C-alpha cells in the first residue's frame, strides 16, 4: 500500500492572503458549463476528459462559501456569490491564486465568481483607500492588476474597472515607495522574490546557501529580498501597462495615463538591458544587488516575456529556440541546483508546476508554435487524466505526483506533498483550451478568434460558452493557425472579431489551414494521419498504442487513483495507488483493428500485501462484467502478481475496460499494467 508523502508543514509559506476558510456567505448557482467536443474520439478521450475535470475543479470543487468578516474588507463583494479557493490543500483564495485563476479562466466562465474572488484580496486602509492586502509577497499584489484589467476586457464591467483602477493605483504607489521589495533606482528594477517562488528551493546559491539554513521561505533571505528577478519585474511592467489602460478607459487625465506608460517603457528597457543574455539567447533569471547574475531559466519569466511583449520578435524566436523543457513540460526554474538532483528535485527547481505549463502554452500559441503548444497541452492533459485530476506539482522526468524537496539546515531534507485539486493547475488547462486552441482574446469591441488547432487533433467544438450577453458555439475545422474562413451564424466575417454587442445564441465557425504536419509522438506516422497524434502507437492501429501492454500510469485514473514510485518492482515510470475507497477506478482504452464484437482476455499486474484476497469490479464501456479477485501476493508492497480474466465481451474499435472499486468490493491494491489479448469470437 502506498504511504503518504512525508511532511505536511501547513500552508502559510506557499501563498499570501487572508486566513480563514468557508464561512457564511451563500454561493449563487454557477452559469451552465460549456462543453468541449472533438470529432476524433482519441482527442476527446485525452483533451475532452481533462477539460471536464478542469471545469469541475474550478466551478464545483474549489468554489466555496466565505466569511464576510474575513474576506469582504473592501465592502465590494456580493454575499450571494462564492469565491475560488487555491485548491484542495489550501482553503483560502490568496491574492496570487485569485488573480491567476481569474485571468486564466474564471472571468470568462463565471464573471460574478471571478469578480468576488478578485475583491476578496482587496482591503481598505485607515483612510478608506482601496489596496491589495499587504503582506510580504509583493508579486501577488502586482499580478492582480493584470487580472483585473483582463476581467474588464472579458466582461465590459465599467463599475468594476473604476474601483479596480483605484486599487491598482494605490497599490502601485505603495510598492514604489516600499523599503523592502521596492524599487532599486540603480538598476531601474523592482526587488523581491520571483513570481510564485516563495520557497528558497527556487533559488540557486547564492542567494541561497547549500543547506538552506536561514529559512524555507524566500523573503527572509537578504539576497532574495534585495535581489531582482525576471518574472517579478515583468509583472510590474504588465501592471503599469494595464494601469495606463485602465486610466485611459475611465477618462483619467492624459498626464496620468502617460505617467504609467512611461514607467512601463522604462521598466521594459531595464528588463532587456539587465536580463537579456546574448550568449544564451534568452533571459537570465536573476540579478543580485551586488551585480551577480544568474544565467538560469525561469519558466514563468520566459512565458511573461512573450505574453506581455517584452521580448522583441528576434528575442522571441531565440527564446523558443533555446528554451529547455523537461519530459513532462516546462519547469519552474532550471536546471537542478547543486543541492538537488533528478532523484530529489527542488520544490521550485527542475520540477513541473502546471501553472507554469499553462503560461508557457499560452505564450507558444501566441507565437504560432503549433507543435510546442500541442505537446505542452498534451502533457498536462495526460497528467490530469492519469492522476484523478489536477495536482499542484509533478516530477518533470517521470510525470509522477511529486511536491519536491527542500532543505532545513545541515541534516534535514524533507519531501513536500503535492496538493490535490489545485485550482490554478486546472485553470491553466482551461486557458490552454480557451486562449490557445480556440485563440479567444478580449477587448472593448468584441471577442477575437485566433485559433491554434494542431494537426491530428481533429475538428473541435466549444458549446455553450457564455460571453457577455451571448451564448456561443465555436466550431473549428481543418488544422493550423491561418483562418481561411470565419462565419457568424453562417455569414462571413471579415477580420477576426466577433462584436461584443451580441445577445442570445450564436454559432461561430472557423476553417483553418497552415498546419505544421510532423510526428510529435515519434511513432513514424505523420500527425495528420495519426489517430492518436500525441501518444506513440503503431501503424497497424493508425498511430494508437498497442493494448498488449498499457501501463497503469497511462490509463484514465479517477476518484483519487494516482501515480506513485514509493515501492519497487514496477514497470514503466510508476504504478497506480489510491485504489482504496469506493469510486476510484482505472480505465484502459483497447485500440483494436476491427469494430466487430468479440471477446478479449485481460491480465492485470498488481500488488496486494493485505492479509486476504481483494476484489474490484470489471466493466466494459460502462457495463458491468463481473468481480475480479486479487489474491494476496506477499507481505511486501514491493512484490507483484498477475491475474487474468478471459472472455471479456468487447465491440467497436476503442472499447474502454475499467477496473473500479464498487459497492461490495474491498479494493486496496496497487496496479502496474494491463495486457489485452484475443479470447475468441
From TrEMBL:
Q: Does the keyword Acyltransferase apply?
A: no
Q: Which CDD domains match?
A: CBM35_Lmo2446-like
Record keywords, A-Z: Signal
**Record-annotated CBM6 domain positions:** 548-677
Identify the Gene3D superfamilies for this entry.
1.50.10.10, Galactose-binding domain-like (2.60.120.260), Maltose phosphorylase, domain 3 (2.60.420.10)
Gene Ontology terms for molecular function: carbohydrate binding
Lineage: superkingdom: Bacteria
List, in alphabetical order, the GO biological process terms annotated in this UniProt record. carbohydrate metabolic process
Signal peptide per UniProt: 1-21
Q: Does the keyword Signal apply?
A: yes
| UniProt protein name | Trehalase
Organism whose genome encodes this protein: Actinacidiphila cocklensis
